[in-house]
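hi! just following up on the protien thing from before. the input was this:
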Amino acid sequence: MQNPFGSGDLYIGDLFCSILKVEKEYWKEHKELKNELDEVIRTYEEARKTLEEHISKYRSDHL
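and the predicted 3d structure came back as:
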């Protein structure tokens, strides 16, 4: 997954949300894909933290 925020037909990130709803049994059988998903999640969480910090600073400086 190159862009977890890519959109399908519904909203930005809908494909990522759909993947996160896949049943546990699937991931047990596809450990390599689970590892890739775990890395995408880690990358997202790091980006989210950085973005939230920048957004907070922006808002405190400009509001």
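Residues 31-62 form the longest helix (32 residues).
The two ends are 36 Å apart (CA to CA).
cheers
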